[in-house]
Design brief:
Layout lengths: L19 E7 L4 E2 L2 E2 L5 E3 L11 E4 L15 E13 L7 E12 L1 H15 L23
Antiparallel strand pairs: 1-6, 2-3, 4-7, 5-7, 6-7
Length: 145
């Protein structure tokens, strides 16, 4: 007796929402481009999200916020970016735009610098063995003639 397999179509699962931890700069009043923010609040952008054009902007690398806000006169926060996320493909920094932005905590300049060290350390590839050359043919550690 022949059997046939029945194809069942499953509804496509919704795409997982990307959640990014990022850093945002503000003026002294916790404003960015005439938009007032508050710590602990979540903001949603209706419409198209495009880096450098529309949406809520932040930087994935902590020190990149200095391209937009000077260290001495600004406030800095740890934010969560979700929903539609756009990255500027021709940019040399990590600026993003998102549809949803939550201001998690104000971290100030010391907190931003601490996070910058953590960010750099996380980028180090510890799996690569380093060779230390100390003979006449070494470069940085040359101890010979």
């Amino acid at each position: 007796m022949a059997t046939t397999k029945k194809r069942t179509s499953k509804a496509a699962a919704p795409a997982p929402t990307e959640v990014l931890t990022a850093f945002k700069g503000f003026n002294k009043d916790l404003r960015c481009r005439d938009f007032q923010y508050a710590v602990g609040e979540t903001y949603t952008h209706e419409g198209k999200v495009k880096a450098c054009e529309s949406g809520f902007h932040a930087c994935e690398a902590p020190l990149d916020v200095f391209s937009y806000y000077p260290p001495a006169d600004s406030r800095f926060a740890l934010v969560k970016a979700t929903g539609a996320i756009s990255r500027e493909s021709n940019s040399s920094d990590t600026k993003i735009a998102s549809a949803v932005l939550t201001v998690e905590a104000e971290i100030g300049l010391p907190g931003l610098l601490s996070r910058a060290v953590e960010w750099v350390m996380a980028k180090i590839d510890h799996s690569i063995e380093q060779t230390l050359v100390t003979g006449n043919r070494s470069a940085a550690t040359n101890t010979g003639n």
